[in-house]
Specification:
By secondary structure, the chain is mostly helical. Helices cover 69% and strands 0% of the residues. The chain is flat and about 70 Å long.
Length: 283
């Protein structure tokens, strides 16, 4: 009995330690977001008041009104949506086709090409900033949607191909064989058989691609020149003027810029549970 009690006590202590560590981590990660949220409802002068207060009497929706009624700031959000959604669609289509070929076919230089794709993924993006700027200017894509979309696709595609190839490799080949027996061609096998059971992998890649495109700042700043093409991260930076910083509007715009990614995670989180294809073919 004493051994059982000691074992139970150790388990309880271990749980308390784990829950305590998780709580500390949650506070450490969540408090800056909570402070950003509270600051977005304060007047600009009260954000740096001492002693600091999480909420004070200057509570106001004015920072959000200022952002949501300014056509220029609304344009930043529109630009981000156009670029991010376009990048997601293009990346997914190309990644699905490439991953299907890598997973289901053998061809010359296959291993070399896969190594090149992985190697491209390992290159720090900042080292490509000047070359990309020169390329976009040379192709007359500077300060255009096409230039930003093409740039982000280059960055997101290697990861997407790697992830989708690994996902297709986990799917039983009996699915392909059963479809081919019924007369389906290669593209039919991909779009009608493999794609429907690859939704979790596609969602993971899509969310990753959307976040990269939505949050990227350096290339969006370098490859755009006018407000008609600038995205949300650049728009937030532009709120920091030469003589004064509109910190409450910066916080409000940051909160609004975080909502799309948060909503997507809440909607599609159930698709991260893998194994939808486990029961597709009986063993």
């Amino acid at each position: 009995m004493s051994i059982a009690i000691r074992t139970r006590t150790k388990r309880n202590v271990g749980r308390v330690f784990i829950y305590g560590a998780l709580l500390v981590g949650a506070v450490f990660a969540g408090f800056p977001v909570l402070w950003m949220l509270s600051s977005s409802f304060k007047s600009n002068a009260n954000i740096f008041a001492y002693p600091p207060k999480l909420f004070d009497s200057s509570f106001s929706l004015q920072p959000y009104v200022a952002v949501l009624t300014d056509p220029v700031k609304i344009g930043y959000f529109v630009n981000s949506y156009i670029v991010a959604i376009s990048v997601v669609i293009i990346t997914l289509v190309i990644a699905l086709l490439a991953a299907y070929v890598f997973s289901r076919y053998e061809f010359r230089f296959k291993s070399i090409i896969r190594v090149v794709i992985i190697g491209v993924q390992a290159v720090p993006p900042i080292t490509l900033l000047i070359p990309f700027f020169g390329i976009m200017v040379g192709l007359h894509l500077y300060n255009t949607y096409q230039g930003l979309i093409l740039t982000y696709v280059v960055f997101t595609l290697p990861y997407a191909i790697i992830m989708m190839t690994a996902y297709f490799d986990s799917l039983p080949r009996e699915l392909d064989e059963a479809a081919r027996v019924d007369g389906a061609g290669s593209l039919s096998v991909l779009w009608r058989i493999l794609v429907p059971v690859s939704v979790p992998g596609m969602v993971s890649v899509g969310l990753y691609t959307f976040m990269i495109s939505w949050n990227e700042y350096l290339f969006a700043l370098t490859l755009t020149q006018t407000d008609e093409r600038r995205t949300v991260p650049v728009g937030i930076q532009l709120l920091m003027g030469q003589n004064n910083y509109l910190w409450n509007e910066v916080m409000a715009m940051s909160i609004l810029g975080s909502i799309p990614v948060l909503v997507l995670f809440l909607i599609f989180q159930r698709y991260f549970i893998g194994g939808l294809a486990a029961g597709a073919v009986k063993s």
